[in-house]
Specification:
This protein is an alpha+beta fold. It has helices spanning 5-15, 21-28, 45-59, 83-100, 153-161, 165-180; strands spanning 32-36, 70-74, 120-122, 125-132, 147-152. It has a five-stranded mixed β-sheet with strand order 1-2-5-4-3.
C-alpha cells in the first residue's frame, strides 16, 4: 500500500494533539512543505534539501506574515535504532548541506556551534532545526518516520518583536509537561545556550561536542 506521508504527519501533529501549537497551526492552515527524500545517506538528499528550502523561501512570504511555516524533510527508508544513531545521521547530512551551500552564512546568527547565538544557515537564512524519529524518548518528537523540520529563525524573532514569544513558549512547555510529565530538559531560549544541543532531541551532557564544522 502506498504511504501518504503528509496525512501521517498531519495525524502525528493534529490527531495526537502535539504540544507545539505553532506546528499545529502550520498543519491546520496547510503551511507545511513536506519532501520525501528516502534515506539520509542518499547522495542527493543534501542538494534536494537546499533546492527544497529555496522553493520554500520563494513560496512563503514569512517576513511579513504572522503565520508559522515549516519545511520537513522526511526519510521513510531510513532505519533508526537509537537516539545516539539518529543524532549522528542528521549532523552528517547538515555537514553535507553546508559543503554544497554556496550562500554566505546568515549574519544575524553565529556559525560557531559552541556559541550561544548559533543557528544553522542554509541559502543565507538561519533555521532552527528539529530532528524527529519513531524511537525518540520525547513523545513530541516521535514522528512517523525519521525527519528533520526546518523552521525559519526569523519567525521566532518576530514572535519576540510582537511580545508573544514567552506566552507561546510557556504554552508549549505546559502542554509537553502535561503529556510526558516533564518538559524536554535540553530546551533553552535562544542566546542562553547553543541551540545545536537541541537539534537531535537527545538529552546531551554538558561536555557534548557538536560534530559540525563551518567552512
Amino acid at each position: 500500500m502506498e504511504r501518504d506521508i503528509e496525512l501521517e504527519f498531519k495525524a502525528f501533529i493534529l490527531q495526537n494533539d502535539h504540544p507545539c501549537v505553532m506546528a499545529q497551526s502550520a498543519f491546520e492552515h496547510d503551511q507545511v512543505m513536506i519532501k520525501d527524500l528516502g534515506e539520509m545517506r542518499s547522495l542527493n538528499a543534501a542538494q534536494e534539501i537546499i533546492e527544497g528550502l529555496e522553493e520554500f523561501l520563494r513560496n512563503f512570504d514569512t517576513d511579513t506574515k504572522k503565520e508559522f511555516y515549516s519545511f520537513i524533510a522526511v526519510f521513510p527508508q531510513e532505519t533508526i535504532d537509537s537516539e545516539i544513531e539518529f543524532e549522528k545521521k542528521p549532523w552528517m547530512l547538515l555537514n553535507q548541506i553546508h559543503k554544497l551551500d554556496e550562500s554566505e552564512w546568515d549574519n544575524s546568527v553565529s556559525k560557531d556551534p559552541e556559541n550561544n547565538e548559533f543557528s544553522f544557515s542554509i541559502s543565507g537564512r538561519a533555521f532552527y532545526i528539529v530532528g524527529m524519529h519513531p524511537n525518540s524518548s520525547r513523545f513530541a518528537r516521535q514522528s512517523p518516520y525519521p525527519s528533520i523540520a526546518f523552521n525559519l529563525h526569523s519567525q521566532f524573532e518576530k514572535l519576540r518583536e510582537d511580545g508573544v514569544f514567552k506566552v507561546v513558549r510557556n504554552k508549549i512547555r505546559q502542554r509537553d509537561k502535561a503529556r510526558q510529565g516533564t518538559i524536554n530538559p535540553i530546551l533553552k531560549d535562544f542566546g542562553s545556550d547553543s541551540e545545536a544541543k537541541q537539534y537531535s532531541g537527545r538529552a546531551v551532557k554538558k561536555d557534548w561536542k557538536c560534530p559540525f564544522h563551518s567552512k
